[in-house]
């Protein structure tokens, strides 16, 4: 018999190493958490803008509008219906993207 050999068969995956390997495999196979979790909601603020917020309340987008035509032409803001439609489409983005994005 040579140096370092033994009669007992070796078990390559045993003990603590096996637990660590399985834990690593499980963690890598889990989908990553999203930075801005759905659902995204829309709220109107001070009759001036719509705010899109994520599940945690983080503001993701502001969509300003102005219903007075003279001010709207100077400030180049949207009318209320346009701002609401754009905010609604923006809030639908988590449904359109894959879960791991």
Mean pLDDT over the residues: 78
Distance between the ends? 57 Å
Tell me the fraction of residues in β-strands, as a range: 15-25%
- Morphology: elongated
Structural class comes to alpha+beta
Radius of gyration (CA) equals 28 Å
Helix content: 25-40%
What's the number of extended β-strand segments? 3
Number of alpha- plus pi-helical segments = 4
Main beta sheet: strand number and arrangement?
Answer: 3 strands, antiparallel
Summarize the helix and strand pattern as letters. HEEEHHH
Task: Quickly describe the structure.
With 101 residues, the chain is an alpha+beta fold.
Note down, in words, how this protein is organized.
With 101 residues, this protein is an alpha+beta fold. It has a domain at 41-96. It is built from four helices and three strands. The protein has helices spanning 16-29, 69-75, 80-91, 93-96; strands at 41-45, 49-53, 59-64. It has a three-stranded antiparallel β-sheet, covered by helices on one side.
